[in-house]
TrEMBL record, chains A, B:
Keyword Kinase carried by entry: yes
Domain ACT: 264-335, 344-406
Protein EC: 2.7.2.4
Keyword Transferase: yes
Protein name: Aspartokinase
Pathway(s) per entry: Amino-acid biosynthesis; L-lysine biosynthesis via DAP pathway; (S)-tetrahydrodipicolinate from L-aspartate: step 1/4; Amino-acid biosynthesis; L-threonine biosynthesis; L-threonine from L-aspartate: step 1/5; Amino-acid biosynthesis; L-methionine biosynthesis via de novo pathway; L-homoserine from L-aspartate: step 1/3
Family assignment from sequence similarity: Belongs to the aspartokinase family.
GO biological process, one term: lysine biosynthetic process via diaminopimelate
Catalysed conversion reaction: L-aspartate + ATP = 4-phospho-L-aspartate + ADP
Gene Ontology cellular component terms for the protein in this record: cytosol
GO molecular function: aspartate kinase activity; ATP binding
Amino acid sequence: MARLVMKFGGTSVADLDRIRTVAARVKREVDAGHEVAVVVSAMAGVTNQLVAWCQALSPLHDAREYDAVVATGEQVTSGLTAIALQAIGVDARSWQGWQIPVATDGAHGKARVQRIEGGELIRRMQAGQVPVVAGFQGLGPDNRITTLGRGGSDLSAVALASALEADRCDIFTDVDGVYTTDPRIVPRARKLERIAYEEMLEMASLGAKVLQTRSVELAMKERVRVQVLSSFEDKPGTLVVDEDEIVEKELVSGIAYSRDEAKVTLRRVPDRPGIAAAVFGPLAEANVNVDMIVQNVSADGTTDLTFTVGKADLARTLDTLRARSGEIGYAEVSADSGVAKISVVGIGMRSHAGVANTMFRALAARGINIEVITTSEIKISVLIREDATELAVRALHAAYGLDAAG
Amino acid sequence: MARLVMKFGGTSVADLDRIRTVAARVKREVDAGHEVAVVVSAMAGVTNQLVAWCQALSPLHDAREYDAVVATGEQVTSGLTAIALQAIGVDARSWQGWQIPVATDGAHGKARVQRIEGGELIRRMQAGQVPVVAGFQGLGPDNRITTLGRGGSDLSAVALASALEADRCDIFTDVDGVYTTDPRIVPRARKLERIAYEEMLEMASLGAKVLQTRSVELAMKERVRVQVLSSFEDKPGTLVVDEDEIVEKELVSGIAYSRDEAKVTLRRVPDRPGIAAAVFGPLAEANVNVDMIVQNVSADGTTDLTFTVGKADLARTLDTLRARSGEIGYAEVSADSGVAKISVVGIGMRSHAGVANTMFRALAARGINIEVITTSEIKISVLIREDATELAVRALHAAYGLDAAG
């Protein structure tokens, strides 16, 4: 017997038939003797509609009212799912964030979970009842409804799994797991049986949009075992776990790519203390998310600084930098939207030399030029021309032996 | 300066444009120096959709889950209306039933308000903030959301007006007041400036569906002055007040009619104690609402018993009576769906003789036969053939001098 949290996203509860399917899936686990808590998102499309209404009434609306409005999506699904479970003989009841409560900080619209009071839910699960928890929402210190930001239902599920000391948190979604790379690019991509939290974080933030990044961070911190699996097919997904649980560590677990970034280069920036802060401070204030940052050794007292930002933020980035050109003192700023970022991710590379060289050789063999390189402990990222993305991903997938047999 | 509760129904908040219109209306009262609390219904159609979903998943669904689901309609409107108010510079915040709290009993789906804690709202109104309260909902003793039954937002508004000691409770709706009769039948029907609670009760339950009956009862009990007015036109509506506030008491305030009732007659029922209970007890258990009841003096130890039920309940009524025919011991049961009920209502008739006779003569003059008569202190009702409804209403409206000067 295990204690499970089962989380169903918007497409999994998009209409009454799918809610019935969800109920049947939950019943199967209950019948198998498990203690089950369910977390649900809003029915697909509902949250967008509610957000659009708030936006239309006032672009700069009160985040507390936004929270009261958008949290209703999950409230509806929690009640309907409880009804669907009861209809097939499963004892169930809905729980709203304020009822449990899921205590959060007061940052309405993007609140952080501080504490979930799990005692009452555990008692009811032990007595055979299935709590159906409205995801995405909590209760702020002002006794008002808070929401956790887009994708927040994953976070609700992981936080609840931690509070309930669940053996596993199953995230049901419209993909059946985490793949070595995008199967649309590499048909021989393999579904990973297991992936380490750290790898998942790198994969998630690199565009393999399976799990919300914050929920992976929380799972890693609280050591919650997460499974990503399909709500439409009945087969195991990918387990996201501590690397200690991964016996056969692969050198490289996956190849990720992103075409959403643009490269910005500041030439001949004076090489003095505080210069990075002078560049990136104003960008942070302008709400620009900076990803890769590369600074090379200087020559004659100046250096070149290259970094990437989201393509959507590029205009704002350039405006900000030009407004501060006097303070920063660069000779020239250039931007390039025609790049793609390709990353090789794997906890195994920590203990192995030569991983980077395999990458560079594979790309060179296809005549792909590398413009920028950054590395972390478990990741190597390069910028290349955007039109070489597919070629690069396929080459690397093969070079690291990730192609499925067949 | 007055303290006002302004309640807006589903058609008044049906879309974002109407919500903006509501906000502008509220702002006008705030600008005039009044303290204002707002109560809102769900956007038109939303509640029906939510109810249909619960129904489709399980016809006999858990009323507690139903409440969690359907209460979201008002939650959305309260948040959106607060945003719309803020957008035009009015300090406002939404309040859910559980936040105030609006304490109810535990009868989920049709809960009764027990107590509203008004102190915090009054303090905020005095400080210039407009509370926007989600109607129709409260908090049960089980710490779960309750709803007050269909039309319950009127009840929320009246109960809130009582708790806030408001000077008036304005019910904005899609009609501009209470008329002497249905203007579709009598074009010269007049809008009443004032109507007594007791009259409004008789008018409301007779089919002038302007205000939910329970909300009128509560207003009468708590002496809340209620105004019914249009949310689309800017003019005074009808004040529902204590009869002491009505200086010029009219003999008859209005003519009401209902085509929704069917007549049932039990012939030769034994005239003995307990016979009425034997008939109406089982009907109550079968959830049949009985309206008029007439029993005439008996002859040779039996009597005829006539009553009316909703047409939709007629089949169930006859089934119930036939199943109990042995216990009741009637000779024959007959039913007639071709009737209409016409009622003359007015607090003035208490102190005046001859009101009934005016009615009987007016109907006789048009050759309309009266099948059944019942009277109360402020109402005379008759059953006639359904096809004479319009003729009867027009004749009575004229006979009591209610026609507007043309």
